[in-house]
Design brief:
secreted, GNK2, alpha+beta, repeat, Killer Toxin P4, Chain A, 140 residues
Length: 140
């Protein structure tokens, strides 16, 4: 019998920001839940996806070296984690080692934003930096 084990992705950090634009917290939370559920289902097909629903804009991005199953696992966990860690915020970003998920009440698609910075690093050594089987561009 072969069994599959799904590991929890490693949580790194988050940024939660409130906004004054929101008139109805209950409606916003319901719309956000709908959108995050949609993103979680899309992660079974794509390693990057952006979407919007009723004035909420969101996206996720998985690391390039992940399988689609690993990506989906991370996005599902991130969508749950962002709701727990930023329960009353209209703007939030959450980072896991394997993926990033973001939502906002303002459209950020196509906009360069350099004001939000989180520094992360990996303490693991790359034992084969010149290995031709590693597609460096796919990892970026």
């Amino acid at each position: 019998m072969i069994s599959s084990v799904t590991c929890q992705p490693n949580y790194n950090s988050r940024i939660c920001l409130r906004s004054s634009n929101n008139t109805s917290k209950t409606k916003y939370k319901a719309n956000l839940n709908t959108l995050l559920t949609s993103l979680s289902s899309k992660s079974a097909l794509y390693s990057f996806y952006n979407d919007s629903f009723n004035g909420i804009f969101s996206l996720y991005l998985c690391r390039g070296d992940l399988t689609i199953d690993q990506c989906q696992n991370c996005v599902v966990n991130a969508s749950q984690g962002i709701r727990q860690r930023c329960p009353s915020d209209e703007r939030a970003i959450i980072w896991y080692e394997q993926c990033m998920l973001r939502y906002s009440d303002t459209n950020f698609f196509g906009l360069e934003q350099t004001d939000i910075k989180i520094f992360m690093w990996n303490v693991e050594n790359n034992t084969s930096p010149n290995d031709p089987d590693v597609n460096t561009l796919a990892l970026m």
